[in-house]
Amino acid sequence: MNIVTLGLASREMSNKRFLEAFEGKPQGAFISFESPSLLFKTLSGKRWEILKVMTGAGPMSIRELARRMSRDVKGVHGDVHVLLKAGILRKTAKGQIEFPFDAVQVDFMLQAA
Questions:
Q1: d(Cα 58, Cα 47) in Å, to the nearest integer?
Q2: Model pLDDT for residues 83-97, shown as the tens digit of each residue
């Protein structure tokens, strides 16, 4: 199963993971955000729904995604472009969009200040 972990990571933590991967230590797939506010700004409710619909679904057009979500194409188009810019979704050689994972794990901890 191809799993991606969404979570919070400082620049130092991301660099450490990169260096360990460079040394051949498996890291798994991560999409990291520097702060909770950035994570929640990027993954709003409707964008989270996009991930739910696309997880394990393979490449598709924005029009097909909008149809599956029962949303208008223009709104889905805007959300997809935010997710593409953030590196969460990918565009295929045929111009379709994909979320190439079968499962999503969300990992972060909220602590007292």
A1: 17
A2: 999 889 999 999 999
Is pLDDT of 11 > 80? no
* Domain at 3-107, CATH from 2.60.120.600, 1.10.10.10, 1.20.58.2140, 3.30.70.20: 1.10.10.10
| Confidence at 106, pLDDT banded by 50, 70, 90 | confident
Q: Starting from the edge strand earliest in sequence, which strands make up the sheet with 29-33, in order? A: 29-33, 3-8, 103-107
Picking from 83, 49, 99, the residue whose alpha carbon sits closest to that of residue 69 is 49
Distance of CA 18 to the CA centre of its chain: 18
